[in-house]
Amino acid sequence: MAKKKTSKKAADKPMTKSEVYRAVADKTGLSRKQVVEVLDATTDVMVKEVKKKGSFNFIGLMKMTLVKKPAVRGGKLVRNPFTGEMVKQKPKPASKTVKVRPMKALKDQL
Questions:
Q1: pLDDT tens for each residue of 41-77
Q2: Which residues pair with 105 in a beta bridge?
């Protein structure tokens, strides 16, 4: 059988969700369906903990932290850093985002 040639662009892309499931199934000997169930359950636990406690430590590899950004009132004059022109700031609602930081175990493996 002839091998498929992978283009340089395809090799640079991160793995898709299906590729991750397949790789974990191959490595563990579990079925792909079982791997999907385990990773979905892990995702549910992560989301609940980040919502409830504000942070989640994923097996010593990375730490997820909930960051709450306050609302910004509009109308204030601010300087555009590119042109130097003073422009009115747009109002922004409050938002939540998740910050992910690598921990020592992950840094040592890289």
A1: 999 999 999 999 999 999 889 999 999 999 989 888 9
A2: none
The distance from CA 28 to its chain's CA centroid, rounded to whole angstroms, is 24
Evaluate if residue 2 carries a pLDDT over 90.
no
Measure CA of the first residue to CA of the last residue in the chain; give whole Å: 35
Q: DSSP state, 92? A: B
Q: In this predicted structure, what is the pLDDT of residue 7? A: 54
pTM exceeding 0.70? no
Judged on CB neighbours under 10 Å (0-12, 13-18, 19+), 56 is buried
What span, in angstroms and rounded, lies between the C-alpha atoms of 106 and 4? 32
CA–CA separation, 82 and 64 (whole Å)? 33
Q: Where are the beta strands (DSSP E) in the chain?
A: 55-58, 62-69, 77-79, 86-88, 95-102
